[in-house]
Write a structure and sequence with these properties.
Elements lengths: L6 E4 L2 E4 L2 E2 H8 L3 E5 H14 L5 E6 L6 H9 L3 E4 L2 H9 L7 E3 L6 H10 L3 E4 L2 H14 L3 E8 L21 E2 L3 H10 L3 E7 L10 H19 L6 E3 L16 H14 L6 E4 L3 H4 L3 E11 L6 E4 L8 H5 L5 E3 L9 E6 L8 E8 L6 E4 L20 E6 L2 E6 L4 H5 L7
The structure holds ligand LLP.
Keywords: Amino-acid biosynthesis, Decarboxylase, Lyase, Lysine biosynthesis, Pyridoxal phosphate
InterPro entries: Ala_racemase/Decarboxylase_C (IPR009006), DAP_deCOOHase_LysA (IPR002986), De-COase2_N (IPR022644), De-COase2_pyr-phos_BS (IPR022653), Orn/DAP/Arg_de-COase (IPR000183), PLP-binding_barrel (IPR029066)
Cofactor: pyridoxal 5'-phosphate
Length: 421
C-alpha cells in the first residue's frame, strides 16, 4: 500500500521528508508526534488550486490540530481559522491570525466567549440556534458592537461516515433544521446588532465521496434562493469541512477535483459570484503526521499476541473512540525476525486501550513503530489519563526538525492543583 506523501522508505528506514524517524525517536524519546510541513502545504495547495480565481477564504478547522507552530504554518500559507472555543480563539490570535479571518463555529458559545470574539473583531459567528442568535444580539448590543453572522443550516443529508462524526442529519444536534431556516433568517435580520452575511453547513467528517457534498450544495442553494427572496442578501456560502483522508485504502476525492464539481454547480445555479468559505481540518493535517512509539513488551498468548507499546489511548484516542484504523509500520524493517500477528496496545488500564488489532509485524522490544495518519484529532484530543504526560511534537521541513512542543512532565500536570496542607 502506498505511503502518505512525504513519508518514504530509504534503505529500510522510514523518513518524514529528509529526516529519519528512528533518529528522531532516539533524539527526543517516544511517544513523539512528527509532522511534515510539505505534506500540510501540499494538502492545503489542493484547496487553493481548486478555489483559485474565486473570492474565497479557507478557514482551517483548528480542532484537528491546534499546536501553535502548525497554526502558524497554515496562517502564513494564507489560511484563516475556524474556532470552536475561547481557548481556540486565544491560540488563533497567538499564532498571528488576523481576527477578521477567524470564524467561530459550535453549538454552545458562552457569553464570555462571544464578548471576547467581538472585542477582537472576528470575521463571523456561525450561529447554530435561535436562542444563540438572541444571546449574541444582546451581547453585541451591550458591548456596543455589531456581530457578523452566518446561520448553520442542517441540510439533512447522509454523509455516509461514522455516526459519531456525522453532523448533517435531522437527528444531529447541529445546525438549524431545514424547515426553520427562513424564520431564523427573518429573526436574524430583525436583530439590531447583527449583520447577516452568510450561510453555512457542515455535514460530517471523514467523508470519502463527492455525493453527499453535491446533495448538500443543492439543498443549501435552494435555501439561499428562498432566503434572498425575503430580502437578505448572503455575501458568503460556507461549506464546512469534512473531506476524508486515506487511512486504510480509503479513496476520497482530491480537494481540487471536488471543488471543480461544486463550483460548476454553483455557477449553473447562478451563485458563482459569492465568496466561498470552507473549514477543512483533517484533510489538511491528517496525513501530514505520524506518532512514534516504542515497543515495550511482547506478550504472546493462546488466542492473541499482544504487543505493548509506550503510546496509548490518551495519545491516540481515535481507535478507542471510533474503532478507527491507523496503519502501523516499523520505522526500521527487520530481516532477522519473523512476522507475527499482534494486537498493538498501550499501557493504560482499559481494554479499550488498543491502537491496532491483528497487525502483521516483525518487531522486537526496543523497536520503534510509526502510527500513521496521526496528524489530525490525535494530539488535539490527547488527555492526561493515567497521569500520562502529553507527547512531544516535532515539525520537519526538509532536513530540518524542530521541536514545537516539549514533552509534558508530571510537574506540568500538577501545576494548577493545590495540595491540602
Ligand atoms: N467545521 C465544523 C463546524 C466541524 O464541526 C468540523 C469537525 C470541521 C469543520 C472540520 O472537519 P474535518 O475537515 O476535520 O472533517 N474527532 C473526530 C472528528 C470530529 C470532527 C468534528 N468536527 C475524529 O477523530 O474522527
Amino acid at each position: 500500500m502506498p505511503l502518505p506523501a512525504f513519508l518514504t522508505q530509504r534503505h529500510g528506514e522510514l523518513h518524514v521528508e529528509d529526516v529519519s524517524l528512528d533518529a528522531l525517536a532516539r533524539a527526543h524519546g517516544t511517544p513523539l508526534f512528527v509532522y511534515s510541513k510539505a505534506a500540510m502545504l501540499q494538502a492545503l495547495g489542493a484547496y487553493q488550486r481548486g478555489l483559485a480565481g474565486r473570492a474565497h477564504l479557507i478557514c482551517y478547522a483548528m480542532k484537528a490540530n491546534s499546536s501553535l507552530a502548525i497554526l502558524q504554518t497554515l496562517v502564513r500559507a494564507g489560511c484563516g481559522l475556524d474556532i470552536v472555543s475561547g481557548g481556540e480563539l486565544e491560540r488563533a490570535l497567538a499564532a498571528g491570525c488576523a481576527p477578521e479571518r477567524i470564524i467561530f463555529s459550535g453549538v454552545g458559545k458562552t457569553r464570555a466567549e462571544m464578548r471576547r470574539a467581538l472585542a477582537v473583531g472576528i470575521g463571523c459567528f456561525n450561529v447554530e440556534s435561535r436562542a444563540e442568535l438572541a444571546v449574541l444580539d444582546e451581547v453585541a448590543r451591550a458591548a456596543g458592537r455589531r456581530a457578523r453572522v452566518s446561520i448553520r443550516v442542517n441540510p439533512d443529508v447522509d454523509a455516509r461516515t461514522h455516526p459519531y462524526i456525522s453532523t448533517g442529519l435531522k437527528d444531529n444536534k447541529f445546525g438549524i433544521a431545514h424547515d426553520e431556516v427562513i424564520d431564523t433568517y427573518r429573526q436574524a435580520a430583525a436583530c439590531e446588532s447583527l449583520d447577516v452575511v452568510g450561510i453555512d453547513c457542515h455535514i460530517g467528517s471523514q467523508i470519502t465521496q463527492a455525493g453527499p457534498y453535491l446533495d448538500a450544495l443543492e439543498r443549501v442553494l435552494d435555501l439561499v434562493e428562498a432566503i434572498e427572496l425575503t430580502g437578505t442578501r448572503l455575501h458568503h456560502i460556507d461549506f464546512g469541512g469534512g473531506l476524508g483522508i486515506d487511512y486504510h485504502g480509503d479513496t476520497p476525492p482530491a480537494a481540487d477535483e471536488l471543488w471543480a464539481k461544486l463550483l460548476q454547480r454553483l455557477d449553473v445555479r447562478g451563485f458563482g459570484d459569492r465568496q466561498i468559505m470552507i473549514e477543512p481540518g483533517r484533510s489538511i493535517v491528517g496525513n501530514a503526521g505520524v506518532c512514534l512509539t516504542e515497543v515495550l513488551y511482547q506478550k504472546p498468548g493462546e488466542h492473541k499476541n499482544f504487543l505493548i507499546v509506550d503510546a496509548a489511548m490518551n495519545d491516540l484516542p481515535r481507535p478507542a473512540m471510533y474503532q478507527a484504523y491507523h496503519r502501523i509500520e516499523p520505522v526500521r524493517s527487520r530481516t532477522d525476525t519473523t512476522a507475527l500477528t499482534w494486537d498493538v496496545v498501550g499501557p493504560v488500564c482499559e481494554s479499550g486501550d488498543w491502537l491496532g488489532r491483528d497487525r502483521e509485524l516483525a518487531v522486537q522490544p526496543g523497536d520503534v513503530l510509526a502510527v500513521l495518519s496521526a496528524g489530525a484529532y490525535c494530539m488535539s484530543m490527547a488527555s492526561n489519563y493515567n497521569t500520562r504526560g502529553r507527547a512531544a511534537e516535532v515539525l520537519v521541513d526538509g532536513a530540518q526538525a524542530t521541536v514545537i512542543r516539549q514533552r509534558e512532565t508530571a510537574a506540568d500536570q500538577m501545576r494548577l492543583e493545590t495540595p491540602l496542607p
